[in-house]
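Hi,

I'm pasting everything inline rather than attaching a file, because the server keeps stripping attachments. The sequence lines come first, and each chain or strand is labelled.
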Amino acid sequence: MITLFGTELSVDAYRVRLFLALLALPYRRQESNILRLDDDGTVLEGSDRILIHLAHRHNLSGSWRLYGSWLDVGRDLPSRKLFRQMDEHLWFAEQEGPGWLCGGHPTIADLACFPAVVLSESAGVSRLPFPALRRWSDRIRQLPGFVAMPGIFV
Amino acid sequence: MTLSGWFPVARSADLAPRHVFQTGLSGQEIALWRDRDGRANAWENRCPHRGVRLSIGANLGSELRCQYHGWRFASGTGQCVAIPAHPGQTPSERHRATVYRCTERFGLVWVSLADEAEDIPTLPGSIWLPLRGMFVEAPLVLVERHVMDSDEVRFFLQPVTDQQTVIHGLWIGSVGDPVALLRQQNDALTQLRNRIESEAA
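And the predicted assembly:
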C-alpha cells in the first residue's frame, strides 16, 4: 500500500500525485506539511527522490525513468533564462519526435518541470515568448490519467 | 527587410491541432488556433464576456471554449454559439470574439490588424523552409538594424509589443538535412539576438 503525506496546495506533492495518477497506482493521502511517501514500508522524502523511486519500482516498461539534468532545472523554475533553454530544446524535440524533454516518451523530467511552468504567470513570468513550452504543457494535460491541481486549468 | 500591413505571427507547423497559440502584434495579444478543417483563426486574446484570455481556453476543433464560463465561439466568424449558463438561449450577435484577418503563406501564419492591407510580399522559388521564430527582447527599430537578408534567407519581423520582436526567417536556399539546417540557423539567430539584447539593455 502506498501512502502519500503532503498538502493539497503544495507543488512538490502535486508532482507526486500526478505521477501516481498517470501510473494508475492506488494510494492513500494524509495531510502533512512535510512531503513523504511510504511505499509498503520504504519511506522517501523529497519529490525528486519519490519520482525516481516510483519510476523504478512501478513503471515496469521503464519508459518514465529518464531525467537527465531536468530535475535540477525543475527546482530552479520558473525563470526566463531556463524557459528560453526549454523552449529551444522542446522545439527541436518536436522536429525530431513527439516533443518530450528526454527522448521519445514522457518521463519524470517532464513531471518535475510541469507545475512550475504552468504556474509561472502567478510568479510573474509570462509564457507568451515560449510557444513550444506551451504546446508541451498541453501534451502533458492530454496524458491519460492526468489530474489537475488548484490553479492549473485542465 | 519587408514591412507591410501583414505580419508573420507563427510558423504554420507550430499551430498544433487542438492547441491555442498565444502571441501578439503591436501590443495587441492574439489567440491563434487551427480548426479541424485546417483553417487558422487569429482572434483578440480576450473573451468578449469577462475579458479572460482565450489562449487558456480549449480548441474543440470547430469552436474555441473560454476557460472561465465555458462560452463557445465558432471558427471563422468568432460568433458565440453556446452559453452553458443559459442553454436554451441563442447568443446575441454582440457576443462575438474580435476576429483579425489571417492567412498562411510560405509556411508562416500572417495577420493584419487593419481591414485594409497591402499584399503579402512575394518570394522567389517555390520551396521555403521557415526557421524557428527568434523572440528578442528589443524594439522593432533596433532589431531591424541588425537583420540582413541574403540570397538564401529572407527575414520578416513581428513587433509583439514595443519592447519585444520576433524574427521569422524563411530559408529559400538549398536544403540537405533540414533539422541540421534549422539548428545551424537557430544558433546564428541566437547569437544575433544576444547581440541585439545587449545593445538594448
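The first helix of chain B runs from residue 140 to 146.

If the labels don't parse on your end, tell me and I'll reformat.
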